[in-house]
Amino acid sequence: MFLKIERLISIIFILLRMKKVTAKYLSDTFGVSKRTIYRDIETLESAGIPIISFQGMDGGFELVEGYRIDKPFLSIKEASTIVSVLNGIKKVVEDVDVENLYKKLDGVCAEDSNFYFDMRSWAMNTESKEKANEINKAISIKRLIEFEYVNNYGEISVRKVGPIKIVLKASSWYLYAYCELKKDYRIFKISRIRDLRILNEKFEKADEEIDYAAIFDKWNNVRNTKIILKFSKMSSSSAQDFFISEKILEKNDDYIIVEVNYPVDNWVYGFITSFGEHVEVLEPEWLRENIKNKIKKMLEVYQKNSAEKLNTEIAEK
Questions:
Q1: What is the pTM for the complete model shown?
Q2: For residue 142, which phi and psi values (nearest 5 degrees)?
């Protein structure tokens, strides 16, 4: 349940985002009566918020064009935290709506927030930013896009999709879109998209509320694999930084055994091997074999390079 002050602030941001909203829309959104919404609008008008009310079938509420939020309406920390988030988004995508909202909060200093937001992943480069901006453009002008996509196994396919939403999940950027090849909605990791092109074909997304948190939770559950890892005491403190106590199956002075549920991709292989000789995969057996094979191939590379270097040194002598 929204407290009144939270509801009033939320109504303002809805009005900033949408051209016009009805009393019914707001009452459904906040679970209150239309009468309460009308009282909220009166409260906002009394506070100096320039709201225009329209009567009749096409009635509703909208803000006077060009209105900016006055700093005193929000606390400095509330406003500056919003500015910090917007600054973080602006580092990745150039979006006119983000820019406009940022301008409406002109004069608020992000340094007054207790938080700093940087939406870029460690591996995000200029190319990834350009892809994110092209996707954002396609969503805005309602166009299909086409690209080559590299999956977890290195397989490449050409996809034509209707882009719906750019999603930041666990420091990685994803595209949620309708894929014409699969005839279904799919999630694509933006860093794996290549040769992206905006097409002339229009794409009209379905006019419905989408629960992205539920979609990503379901996606993760489908991809997840139960993995049991044994960490030596040399790395047990580092391992415990990653896992909550409920995931620790066994713990003593020599080792800890943990159970995790992760999608097995390059990140998982990198995560496991980053602990070197201080971790052992106990289950599943196929992952244990894959790790062993990767270690063998790494060793072969180093042995080959060492042999070539030795032969070169002998030849130079």
A1: 0.51
A2: 60, 60
